[in-house]
Amino acid sequence: MGIEGVTDWREAMVSALAWWDEVGVDTLVDEAPRDWTARETSLPAKGEAPAPVAPSEPEAIPLPATLEAFVDWRFGGDAPEAAWGEPIVHAMGDPASPLMILTDMPEAGDCDLGTLLTGDAGRLFDRMLAAIGQTRASVYIAALCIARPVTAQVPRELEQRLGELALHHVALAAPKRLLLLGQTVSRSLLGSNAGAGRGRLQPINYQGGQSEVVATFHPRFLLNKPAVKADAWKDLQLLIGGQNQ
After folding, report:
1. pLDDT in tens, 72-130
2. What are phi and psi of 119, to 5 degrees?
């Protein structure tokens, strides 16, 4: 006596495959359900790595638009140098002065005294100011890098950003003349023109105006290379000549 209802699964499978073949289905796509109405995306070729997805860049936060607000931000906890944990040395002098001076970074003793350009370099700087009839109180002095790096050198990877911040600082102070002390400051502010900046009065443009720039040697360099003091004096004379233009 046979058993009714028993189906040969092999026969059923062959029959199902034959039917799919007849209707044109000859490729197994996926075991998981697929939304055939979804828009197709291009797939990488076989053996080709998928293209990386670029992360969305955060929108740049605009810098403060007034000198007072910028100084509060620049010398606060959001400054690039604040993460170093080193003392920050503020700008000094008269922000309304027609002459602004930029040094590269605080000297070794500046952090203890809370002022820029101290020690032997500072004393030579004071004599340079006196030679052109100025004092620290009559000019505006700021540093490209507001904290002293542990390497005693401004990090090259930060020069461009620090230059952008310094230029914004200059734009808000709007001095008639700008004196750059040292190659690092000149390179950050003048870029490719840094090498040609010495020995001539040149303009630097920023949003809202223009200042005349003189690039010279840093007092620290002059202490080690006294022979170039004559060239530095020529730069200062050029700066004095710019006052009367």
Report:
1. 999 998 899 988 988 999 999 999 999 999 999 999 888 888 899 999 999 999 999 99
2. 70, -155
φ/ψ (deg, to 5) at 14: -65, -40
pLDDT digits (tens, 9 = 90+) for 16-35: 665 555 555 555 555 555 66
Asked whether the beta carbons of 81 and 147 are under 8 A apart, the reply is: yes
CA distance 167 to 75: 15
Sheet containing strand 99-103, edge to edge, reads 92-93, 140-143, 99-103, 177-181, 209-216, 202-206
Q: What are the structural domains of the chain?
A: 86-243 (3.40.470.10)
Rounded Cα distance, 114 and 129, in Å = 20
